[in-house]
Design goal:
The chain is 31% helix and 37% strand. It is of the alpha+beta class. The structure holds coenzyme A.
């Protein structure tokens, strides 16, 4: 997979898999750096890095095209995002995911993130539509971080 930064023609449909709010996606695309992963010229994944606090970067959107999920692209993108953050001199990397996102919680912890907190009712407050995954209502944001 080849990973490169893009500044336009963002794969919004793909990004909606990670974040159902197009409004929020467009907001952080203005401030963040967007990278796509391509395999044989086809987009297979995307991630966005956003500077938050001093020396801190957040992985705010990561998604793999549905038919290509479970093949290792997601893990490769997370590892690449961590390496890019290190290269750019960040000291801390953060990521957040829903309380119901069991696979994502596994993926992030396998890539070195540890749970640092819970944003209670984050999804109830910021998202109009109800989110349900794995039969679990998604209401709280689990915050994870790692030192780079
Ligand atoms: N069941 C259980 N665990 C799974 C899984 C499944 N069906 N698919 C992935 N995982 C977990 C495993 O722990 C796996 O680790 P392993 O390689 O040690 O087995 C790890 O995720 C990485 O798998 P990978 O194939 O690299 O993941 P992926 O390419 O499917 O990408 C996502 C992972 C989350 C990016 C992808 O599934 C996706 O785009 N989901 C929708 C968008 C989304 O939820 N984004 C994150 C928002 S917080």
């Amino acid at each position: 997979m080849e990973i490169r930064r893009i500044n336009e023609a963002y794969p919004i449909e793909l990004m909606l898999l990670a974040d159902p709010s197009e409004k929020l996606i467009k907001q952080y695309l203005k401030r963040g750096k967007c990278y796509i992963g391509e395999e044989n010229g086809e987009i297979v994944g995307v991630f966005v890095l956003l500077s938050t606090r001093p020396e801190t970067v957040e992985l705010v959107n990561i998604a793999v095209v549905e038919k290509h999920q479970g093949k290792g692209f997601g893990k490769a993108l997370v590892i690449d995002a961590i390496n890019k953050a290190k290269e750019h001199g960040y000291k801390v990397m953060e990521v957040g995911t829903g309380n119901s996102s069991i696979d994502q919680l596994a993926l992030y912890q396998k890539c070195g993130f540890r749970i640092i907190g819970v944003d209670i009712d984050f999804f109830t407050i910021h998202y109009e539509e109800e989110i349900n995954e794995n039969g679990i209502p998604c209401v709280d944001m689990i915050r994870l971080a790692q030192l780079l």
